[in-house]
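Sanity check

After download, print the first record. It should look like this:
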Amino acid sequence: MPLKDFLLPGENVRFQSVSNVQYAGRAYRVIITDKRLVLYSRSGVMFKSDNVATESLKDIQGIHYKEQGIVMKKGILDVLGNTKIVLVGSSSEVKAIYQNLSYLITKK
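Expected structure tokens:
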């Protein structure tokens, strides 16, 4: 099932990560729409399986970004909403997610 099948009617994609980030031990593509933060993963060679986790932008109470490492820096983004979502990946990718998410939640 393609990603568009998981979007709500009238929902518009505002940002999509270039590479995957880690969440709960699994690699996800991060999509930020005008309504939600969507984590999308597809696995399987012959039998495809989709895994989707979402958080409404209006439910996000705060976000926190930090970097770890000296040579191979990784970015860590904590998203505080109904659940705590911790995204880990390359510092450039996670920083881009932070910047886009920060912009959209301040507009809500």
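If your output differs, re-run the checksum step. Summary of this record's structure: The radius of gyration is 14 Å.
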